[in-house]
Amino acid sequence: MRVRVFALPILLALTGCATERDDTGLLADALGRIERDQPIEVIVLGPNLSQQARKSASELHRVVEQSELNPVSGYDLPAGHFLLKAIEVSGNTAHVVGTLGPVPSRATLACGIHYDFSFSFQRGRWVPGDIEMMQC
Predict the structure, then answer these.
(1) Closest CA to 101 of 67, 132, 135
(2) For position 108, what pLDDT does the model report?
(3) Residue 43 pairs with which residues in a beta bridge?
């Protein structure tokens, strides 16, 4: 199932030019929107994350490397865990991509709730856009 959610016009301040990254601000906004409905206890760091994204995640929550995460009670990604896959910034657009657990062990599909938060840089600020969600 694919759901498209439209974001409220919450603005993120960013100092500097549009090409400057603000991984911490973008991630904080994305996680804040998830946490309105479900708390996040741990950010699981995907293997392809930049050092900057890893640093930003560690400033916001407790973190663990995906390779060090042990399955818990039949789940590869337990409830309350957010697998951060990417923070991508390209010009005036940005995306925060990840999956919220629980994801059962031996799942044939990549279960959980997959999120893709989009942002655009407008008038000196990062503005949240659509949220694409896919849940199996």
Answers:
(1) 135
(2) 57
(3) 63, 82
CB count within 10 Å of CB 29 equals: 21
Residue 130 bridge partners (DSSP): 6
How many CB atoms lie under 10 A from the CB of residue 100? 22
The pLDDT tens digits of the residues spanning 87-122 come to 999 999 999 999 999 888 876 556 789 999 999 999
CA distance 95 to 20: 14
Domain containing 114 equals 2-135
Strands (E), 1-136: 2-6, 12-13, 42-45, 62-65, 75-77, 81-90, 93-100, 103-104, 113-122, 125-135
Q: 99 burial class (0-12, 13-18, 19+ CB within 10 angstroms)?
A: buried
How many domains, in total, are found in the chain?
1
Question: 36-39 contacts: CB < 8 A, separation 24 or more?
Answer: 38/80, 38/100, 39/80
What is the distance between the alpha carbons of residues 96 and 85, in angstroms, rounded to a whole number?
8
3-state secondary structure 45-77: ECCCCCHHHHHHHHHHCEEEEHHHCCCECCEEE
